[in-house]
Amino acid sequence: MAVTMNKANLLLQLKQVSIAPKKALSRLLVNDVTLSIKAGKTTCVVGESGSGKSLTALSVMGLMSKQLQLVTGQVLFNDGQSGEQDLSKLDDESLRKIRGAKIAMIFQEPMTSLNPVLTVGYQIGESLTAHLGLKGEALKVKVSSLLSMVGIPPSRANSYPDELSGGQRQRVMIAMSIACEPLLLIADEPTTALDVTVQAQILKLLDELKTRMNMGMLFITHDFGVVADIADDVVVMFRGEIVEAGTKVEVLGNPQHPYTKALLACVPDAEGKKPLKPIDYSWLENAA
Amino acid sequence: MSALILQANHLVKTYTQRSGKFGFSTTLVKALDDVSIRLTQGKTLAVVGESGSGKSTLARCLLQLQPLDSGEVLFAGQDLAKLSGRDLRAVRKNLQMVFQDPFASLNPRMRVGEIVGEGLLIHQIGRPAEQQKSVITMLKRVGLTESDMQKYPHEFSGGQRQRVGIARALVLQPKVVVCDEPVSALDVSIQAQILLLLKELQAEMALSYVFISHDLRVVRHIADDIVVMNQGKVVEQGDVEEIYQFPQHEYTQNLLAAIPGKKATKA
Q1: Could you confirm whether domain B1-94+176-267 is CATH 3.40.50.150?
Q2: ipTM over 0.85
């Protein structure tokens, strides 16, 4: 029993994952990325735009664009029942059973990721019908409870996305993603488009859900403030590679890599004590 | 006490919004509800608030890009709200804007040289050769090169495009620049560069900024004075340090408490 518990702890392992365009296989957009996520813990991936954060997340779900290809590496997912599976080797049919049910994703743009011509209740219920076969009254009850869990009045189930504010839409996205109680939640900049106050609410909500359902969370962000609030472990990416990884205290408190230091130095603080500094790439020349 | 350069008194702006079944009825939304601000010469006034609080409407109304319902905007003794046509255009030379989205605010079919030089053309400042020269000087000042003049906006990154937007605003040597969330679409690493550039240019060209932002961390670094808006109303205004340390209004306190990373610094 103890052994299985231990194994179940490591929910997801990326092993030496490299991604490149099919037409230029030598140009690695994600280069040799290895990371793991434990159940009930949050791993934050931080980096600038173009550093490969989102691609890494998409590769877990097998949602990469057709022009891209996983060159090497394994995406090992352990759902605690069927042992370790390499998600990158699965066919569409088996992937579909995992997506939404065991691994769910929250996308960056709540404005564009919802279908404008379907009610939010229908969209939340879709995965429940597909994966758990819920129908009729049972489905309605479940959708209502999900909506109230994310803090939206259940009566709004019949609303269309354009009738909701940005923060509410993102809550709907969260309700959709947690509908089937996934083991792993991938959140790709879930709060970037939102106001600070709403952001704080959403982060709190995600943190509570994570604890309550013992989810593992892969959280992608470029905001170190958010990292400080929500992360257990932090992975810093730069130009497709992981430059530093460790616990939050290690990475934020005592950064080792010059890029992490440079990135942390240019984050403005709320007290205004720290002088503003443009990002410093001089270490790149020294390294080369 | 330095002089006031831009003053807005009792601005009111109402939008009508369709509501009810099929949008047959209308409701009025007060985007600006008796808003007054004062911008001191050479200083930065930050306007903060959540989306929907009327920040951007305020920016647009200051420059008369949108008509006001009532109220006055005083610049150099003139009420901008009463001007129109040629007179307004002449004054606008001194009032420029840097827009939020560097991807949407540059015409994709114009070369950067044309984009930056257009203001000079419109205001007929200098001969073509001189215009060319000031465009080049401005581009170099914001960290771009002479050869960038021939390029189109899509050839640049977000940060570079925002530099083009700043060059376009500053080439006319304005007195007041309204920056509507100039860094919120940029990476943290690029944000600091643009903020520093704005600060340097302010010192060099004696600019006064109205800086619209929802990021209180950014505001803390660039602003001298601050106006907090909520639902079209100014709920609190004053000196930056004072408001950050002793926020009086509940809304301001909530905003400050929501800054990410606070929890970690406290713990």
Answers
A1: no
A2: no
